[in-house]
Write a structure and sequence with these properties.
α6 packs across α7, α6 packs across α8 and α8 runs parallel beside α9. This protein is of the alpha/beta class.
């Protein structure tokens, strides 16, 4: 049962809106509707659980409504529907997700009512990490981050609290490692998105460097912990390319891994496709140094900027990570499915490990398996977890997760 979720339908087709409202009311939803977005305030829309939004309307179209909703602290979940071309629908929903709106999905008119009920019963990607508090000034976030990093630097103190999302082999779901991710909570601030933490740090070069080094240290210590408990898998950690440019950066990271007792071959440094789009001689040299030190290098978020794939020919990359948004789009778009399959072929032909992020359904898993993708991570396997909870997760999946023999090298 939908537990009396409150739904607002915004569609200028009176007959369609009335029929849809009646259908959803019979399905035990609490429904309100309007045919003109100009008559409804954003504050009013934000009182509802779900907004069913048509794209083609008089005055403000659906894209304009989403733009306004993205300014709200607590926007409703959004389900887009339209008779427009699928590429238009995909563009609007993609833009909504980039604005961190909780998009449930989209439907092309006419659609099967059962597909609508399925989407209404789903959970939007953005709500899993939606901030629970009003926006805090970047200066306050930076100050709180400095305090947290200083506390972690005290001898004998706990490392900076990272989360870990398991990565498993697509073929049998056995443990292959985990990606270290920032938490959604910062002492002194409370609930906050990792993107806000990184943005505040990025405004100050020394703070971004300190955050990168401490998250790297926490990541390798987490890897050491599961290796000591018999689980053989690498750890992946995001490193801003700018942090790697100083001459001592790569040797310092290698020393951090050595001090933690983790071979460099068990550490995958993730660089975003966008960061490497306009590679300089310094960045190419830094990536080469990472490989010479034994670290694996993953090109993350592949698929967000397709022309950036040209950088693969210049970089000593060992791993490609297909962006979760592309996996999401592949559920309904043949074009996206073809792109994913092509990326998998590219990685395989270049002898790279290929990882799909954002695998959330069994259909997603079957698709990536059919595309011969090596490993997956996403909510179907597990959300990101504190290290202690990851160890419980590993223990509960020990028969499939504990791989005998030496740790697998990635270099």
């Amino acid at each position: 049962m939908p537990a009396h979720q409150r739904i607002f339908i915004l569609d200028d087709d009176d007959d369609f809106r009335a029929d849809l409202g009646e259908f959803l009311s019979h399905a035990d939803y609490d429904v309100t509707s309007s045919g003109d977005p100009r008559t409804v305030s954003m504050d009013e829309l934000c009182k509802y659980d779900v907004l069913i939004l048509d794209l083609s309307m008089p005055g403000d179209d659906g894209a304009a409504v989403l733009r306004k909703l993205s300014e709200c602290i607590r926007p409703p979940d959004v389900l887009v529907m339209s008779g427009a071309d699928n590429s238009v629908i995909d563009a609007v929903t993609g833009a909504g997700r980039l604005r961190h709106l909780p998009i449930r999905g989209s439907l092309h008119k006419p659609f099967d009512p059962d597909d609508l009920l399925r989407l209404l019963a789903s959970t939007p990607e953005a709500t899993k990490e939606r901030p629970a508090a009003p926006r805090v000034a970047d200066a306050a976030v930076a100050a709180a981050l400095r305090s947290a990093l200083a506390a972690a630097a005290v001898p004998g103190a706990e490392p900076f609290p990272m989360m870990f999302q398991p990565q498993v082999r697509a073929s049998d779901l056995s443990f292959d490692g985990a990606e270290a991710l920032l938490p959604n909570v910062l002492p002194g601030i409370g609930t906050i998105s990792p993107e806000r933490i990184v943005a505040a740090a990025a405004a100050e070069a020394d703070l971004l460097d300190a955050l990168a080094r401490e998250t790297f240290r926490s990541a390798v210590l987490g890897c050491k912990h599961w290796m000591d408990n018999g689980y053989h898998g690498s750890v992946s950690v995001n490193i801003p390319i700018g942090v790697l440019l100083p001459a001592r950066a790569v040797p310092d990271l290698a020393e951090i891994a050595r001090a933690a007792g983790v071979p460099a071959t068990q550490v995958i440094c993730e660089l975003t496709e966008d960061a490497m789009y306009a590679s300089s001689s310094e960045s190419l040299m830094a990536v080469a140094q990472m490989r010479l030190a034994g670290f694996g290098v993953a090109l993350d978020d592949i698929g967000q900027r397709s022309s950036g794939l040209l950088q693969v020919t210049k970089l000593p990359v060992t791993e490609l990570k297909i962006d979760r948004e592309l996996i999401f789009e592949a559920r309904a778009s043949d074009k996206a499915r073809s792109i994913v399959a092509s990326l998998a072929d590219l990685g395989r032909n270049l002898s790279m490990k290929v990882v799909a992020e954002g695998v959330e359904t069994t259909d997603d898993l079957e698709f990536v398996r059919a595309s011969h993708i090596d490993c997956v991570q996403g909510y179907l396997v597990s959300p990101k977890l504190p290290l202690s909870v990851l160890m419980v997760w590993l223990a509960s999946n020990r028969s499939a997760s504990a791989s005998p023999g030496p740790a697998k090298e990635t270099a």
